[in-house]
Amino acid sequence: MTTLNPPPAFRGRVEAHALVLFAALLGEAEARARVLELWLPGTTVYALPDGGDWLVLFGEARSLRAEHALGLPIATAAAGGRIDLPRAGRTRTYDLQSLPVLDPADWLGLDGFARHALAPLEPPEPAPAAVVAPQRTAGPDLRAVAGVGEASARTARRLQETGPRGGTAAGRAPTGPVRDGLLARLVLGTPAEALVRSRHERYLRRLTRQFENRSWNEALRDAVALGGGAGGGRTTLRLPGHRGGPLLPTAVRTPGGAVIPYGASAQQQLRVLYREAVTALEKESRIEEAAFVLADLLDDAAEAVALLERHDRLRIAAELAEGRGLDAALVVRLWWRAGERARALDVARLRGAWAAAVDRLGQLDGDAARQLRAEWSAERYAAGDLLGAIEAAWPDPELRPGAVSLARRGLDGDTPNRAALLCYALSRQPDPAHLDEARTLLATLYPDEADRRAQRVLVRTLRDVVPEVPAVDRELSTGALRALLRGAPHETDPAERQRIVKALRRRADPLYVADLVPAPPPADRATLHLSAEREPGQLPLVDAVALSPGLMLTAHGDLGVRLLGRDGQVKARWDVPAHRLVVADHGGTALLVARRGEVHDIRRLDLATRRVRPWTTLRAKEVASSYDGSVLTVVDEDGIAFVATDADRPRALWRELERDQDVESIARGPGHLAAVVRTPGGFNLPDSREVWRWDLPEIVLRARNPVPPDGPPMALLSDGTALHVESEDGIGAELRLHAYGTHPTGSTPYPVPADTTGLLQDGSTLATVVADESRSSVRFAERPGGRTWACVTFPEDASPRLRVHAGLATLHDGQGRIVVLDLTHRSVALNLRTALR
Question: Are the CB atoms for 36 and 94 separated by under 8 Å?
């Protein structure tokens, strides 16, 4: 009798290479169901010749529980196209080539199934949405609010003679005929000057009597407005005009108008007269009229706003403060107190005035300040800035529990700010797993670049966030102090390093502190040389931004968007088209822009929840490469628009420039915005070309510097520097990097390598490119024309591009090569290529 070799397994776990199904006993329907349940790619089903049984041969061995298996497990592997099977108490050898093969595909029929036409998951691409115009405040009609009546009969006659205009004593008058200035120059200094002065003296005497007699209606309508100083405009001899109709304070007072030749004594007399009128009007509870005198006659809008707020005329005060461009925090407080909270939040979001507004409001109403702080935190959370939401709520003890909950929620997923969130999560009743993570991070002696960066963030945050449990605070402060003093250059700023050490020493274990010895400062490093991957990536690449040393967001055009880890593994992917990544400054959200000419289809990606939602379709010439998580900067046919991204419909919170001004390029960074602007000359004058620079988030224009009107395209930095490379003296001469915007009268030349072929820039970071037939090198210098600290070489077929975010410079090419440099600590963070994983 032939023994079984090996015997079949009936109990326990076995590595099975095949199963025998007794189809005759099970029935064909049940046997088919079991085959389909067992089916994996590489599986083959054979019909055995004796008994009608089936052999299910696996592509690779499977670990099965014999008593739970769907058939008889076979531990023997097929060899040489043959397999041994137990049959009727004996072992028989079967030639697989001679056995009939059963194809499960023949069992799957489509009869009886209804046919359905599939519809697209998303509706057809909508037409570009029109951007809603921003709400502007020109200023309240204080004359109407104050109840100043119509002009008297004498005033009406004067209006017919002189026209309904207002005059100023210095520099604020509306512009009149050009001949006024010429006539004044001809008359002044001649005997006719005495006649002119007598007319003005009669006017001043009459105006003084009106104020002294408290004839407020006549006095306020006839009064001349005093400017804030000499306007530098032309001189006029006309009497001040008489105001007829409504008076609207303008948002921006135009300097350089007509100057009435009143001496300093006359202006001082009028100022005293107006100040006395303010006091009298306030005593008579004629608050709006007093504010009119302050804002329009004395040109002191700030005091007028204070007067109105003091007497609870909050809406008028808010309109005046916003219209006159007063401090944004003051505007927020006034709108909030006036009950116009949506208007207050718009101003705070646009101008970045959250912290100052909370402080201003807290001086008057602590509960209202807490509500505004909560709105600030909610706005940051809605913008995807989880850390910003926590930092906004943290100063208020009543909001801290919610902030800790946000931190713990953020630790459930991948986030660029994990180390900081960890510190906030440990501040109250720390979770043991989070505490172990912090211990491990602080105790790591030689971490890689991603861990070094996380370690630096954790140490910095521990300086300001003190855990409530004393033992936890002492342990973490000791670990942070040791990590800071023993090795890696956590802080390049010596003063900041000293502040952190001082704060941690007070809270650390005294025994550890006594034994710590500071490490010597790091020596200057040589130039960093690095080569990108020689082979191209497996996926084409149109844009890439490093969110942290271990996290990379990549856009592949119509192939979608991916989130990569530190070794290139895919952490998440989204099958939505994207040709440009607009990353928030805080790194928590990104806008995925699919560009079709001037039409931009924009989706919003929340990196904490990994969710993508459609936002809008815009028609724009250019979209800035970054945003603050809430307000996006775009260039359209009407100029530069600052668009709120938290609404379903795009809404412009503010606009700059005019329609006839052409924006050649823009550059944005967390604190600045710059644009190369071409303005038509008119009257056969040439166009002007300038670099405009604004401070963000206030959107305050700080500089307008000229650049060559017909020069080459500029490499523009967000700090307002426009650059291009050219030869100083013609072909073969030394190349110079010309920087405009650093000096109002021209360019500053810097020497660059003679083989420089181009420039790369993003935000405020500049790099020079050297390309030849064998390679393409990107060089980073300490400053324009300074020492090169890094040189990254790409293969000859690459055209590298530059993106900068959170102190990380991402170099990438269209073929999937990616190199990331840490600009702060001058080290390599990533060097990889895209892969199909």
Answer: no
Buried b or exposed e, range 393-404, using 16+ CB within 10 angstroms: bbebeebbeebb
Identify the residue whose tokens are 């600590």.
Answer: 825
Backbone angles phi, psi at 242, to 5 degrees: -115, 130
Q: Are 653 and 644 in contact (CB under 8 A)?
A: yes
Whether the upstream peptide bond of residue 6 has omega within 30° of 0, thus cis, is: yes
Calculate mean pLDDT across residues 79-93: 84
Q: Domain 528-833, what fold?
A: Methylamine Dehydrogenase; Chain H (2.130.10)
pLDDT at 729: 52
Q: What is the mean pLDDT of residues 795-817?
A: 89
Q: Strand 700-706 vs strand 561-564: parallel, antiparallel, or unpaired?
A: unpaired
Angle at 539 between CA 793 and CA 819, to 5 degrees: 30
| Distance between CA atoms of residues 479 and 468, nearest Å | 17
Q: Which residues pair with 557 in a beta bridge?
A: 578
User: Are 819 and 828 within 8 A, CB to CB?
Assistant: yes
The 3-state secondary structure of 351-386 reads: HCCHHHHHHHHHCCCHHHHHHHHHHHHHHHHHCCCH
Give the tens place of pLDDT for each residue, 152-192. 555 444 444 444 334 445 433 333 433 344 445 544 555 55
Q: In the predicted model, what is the mean pLDDT of the chain?
A: 79
At 436 the three-state DSSP class reads: helix
Element spanning 822, H or E: strand 817-822
Q: Which long-range contacts (CB under 8 A, 24 or more apart) does 213-220 make?
A: 214/280, 216/148, 216/277, 216/281, 216/286, 216/289, 217/148, 217/149, 217/152, 218/152, 218/155, 219/277, 220/143, 220/146, 220/148, 220/289, 220/292, 220/293, 220/297
Q: Which of 233, 209, 224 is nearest to 169 (CA)?
A: 224
What's the rounded mean pLDDT across residues 688-695? Answer: 90
Q: What is the pLDDT of residue 739?
A: 72
Torsion of CA 680, 682, 686, 688, to 10 degrees: -30
Residues with Cβ within 8 Å of residue 761, at least 6 apart in sequence: 667, 715, 716, 717, 723, 767, 802
DSSP string, 525-559: PPPEEEE--SSPPSS--SEEEEEETTEEEEE-BTT
**pLDDT computed for residue 173 by the predictor:** 36
- Residue 694's pLDDT is 93
Exposed (0-12), middle (13-18) or buried (19+): which is 364, by Cβ within 10 Å? exposed
Q: Where do the structural domains in the chain lie, given as residue ranges? A: 13-107, 142-324, 327-400, 416-521, 528-833
Residue 175, Cβ neighbours under 10 Å: how many? Answer: 14
Smallest Cα–Cα separation from 575: which of 600, 552, 599, 557?
557
Q: In which band, very low, low, confident or very high, does the pLDDT at 231 lie, cut at 50, 70 and 90? A: very low
- Residues 6+ positions from 822 with CB-CB distance below 8 Å: 449, 453, 549, 807, 808, 828, 829
β-strand 639-644 against 801-805: which pairing, if any?
unpaired
DSSP designation for 114: P
Round to whole Å and give the CA distance between 671 and 394. Answer: 23
**How is residue 581 written in tokens?**
């990544």
- Are 427 and 435 contacting, i.e. CB atoms less than 8 angstroms apart? no
Cα separation of 334 and 319, whole Å? 9
What local confidence, expressed as pLDDT, does residue 493 receive?
58
Query: 703-737 as b/e, with b when 16 or more CB fall inside 10 Å?
Result: bebebeeeeeebbbbbbbbbbbbeeeeeeeeebbb
**Which residues touch 691 (CB under 8 Å, ≥6 apart)?**
674, 675, 676, 677, 703, 704, 705, 706, 707, 714, 716, 720, 721, 722, 740, 741
Q: Say how far apart CA 670 and CA 584 lie, in whole Å.
A: 9
Can you tell me the distance from the alpha carbon of 196 to that of 192, in angstroms, rounded to the nearest whole number? 7
Quote the pLDDT of residue 453.
80
3-state secondary structure of 212: helix
